[in-house]
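Structure first, sequence second, as always.
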């Protein structure tokens, strides 16, 4: 068997080959981090990955084989997860998988974003163009502050939170693990958003939301939880 070619210095594995990966591309280029491989389960995208020359990996088994064949862990390969949407739990699961294989999460801050010196970003966070993270804000692992979003002073974000484009978190907001704040939504000061919540686009949240709530509108109101009868078969254990 032919030995795998050596990996370039500073090599990165990107998980996801769609639009979010394209948004991370300028920051990776500015940092001089060559993308050695892209994980993309949709085979139709394999011929047009956002990183020309990168190796296409179709699934977790392919990732494990690539790491073993290339010596990626010993070479110090890092990874970033180009998975947006309401997928914070999946980002955290994949981080656990890749760290277990010896790779390291890469924190990315676009050069046109602003992060206060007193803010704290856990490994794997992504701060996209024109986003702002204010004084003494604390972000857990695998948080995304997307384009033109704002996380103000003393906010506390759990792991896997996604603040979508244009959303605003006022001061002292707390957001639980794996919650998503929709595009152009506003969370008023000192409000707590529970774990796993989904705040709809354009909503204005004026009061705390319990875990697992989906809230929409102005002011935001919780949607009724779907009944078991209305859930798809996969959600009923069929």
């Amino acid at each position: 068997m032919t030995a795998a070619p050596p990996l370039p210095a500073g090599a990165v594995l990107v998980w996801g080959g769609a639009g979010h990966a394209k948004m991370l591309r300028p920051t990776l280029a500015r940092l001089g981090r060559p993308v050695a491989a892209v994980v993309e389960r949709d085979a139709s995208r394999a011929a047009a990955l956002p990183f020309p020359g990168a190796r296409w990996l179709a699934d977790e088994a392919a990732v494990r084989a690539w790491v073993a064949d290339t010596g990626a862990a010993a070479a110090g390969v890092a990874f970033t997860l180009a998975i947006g949407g309401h997928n914070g739990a999946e980002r955290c699961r994949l981080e656990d998988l890749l760290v277990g294989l010896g790779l390291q999460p890469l924190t990315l801050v676009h050069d046109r974003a602003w992060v206060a010196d007193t803010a704290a970003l856990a490994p794997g966070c992504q701060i996209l163009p024109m986003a702002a993270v204010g004084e003494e804000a604390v972000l857990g692992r695998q948080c995304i502050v997307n384009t033109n979003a704002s996380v103000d002073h003393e906010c506390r974000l759990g792991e896997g939170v996604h603040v979508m484009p244009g959303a605003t978190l006022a001061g002292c907001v707390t957001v639980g693990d794996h919650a998503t704040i929709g595009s152009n939504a506003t969370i008023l000061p000192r409000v707590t958003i529970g774990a796993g919540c989904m705040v709809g686009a354009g909503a204005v949240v004026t009061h705390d939301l319990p875990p697992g709530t989906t809230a929409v509108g102005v002011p935001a109101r919780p949607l009724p939880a779907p009944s078991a009868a209305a859930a798809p078969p996969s959600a009923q254990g069929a």
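Margin note: The chain is about 15% helix and 25% strand.
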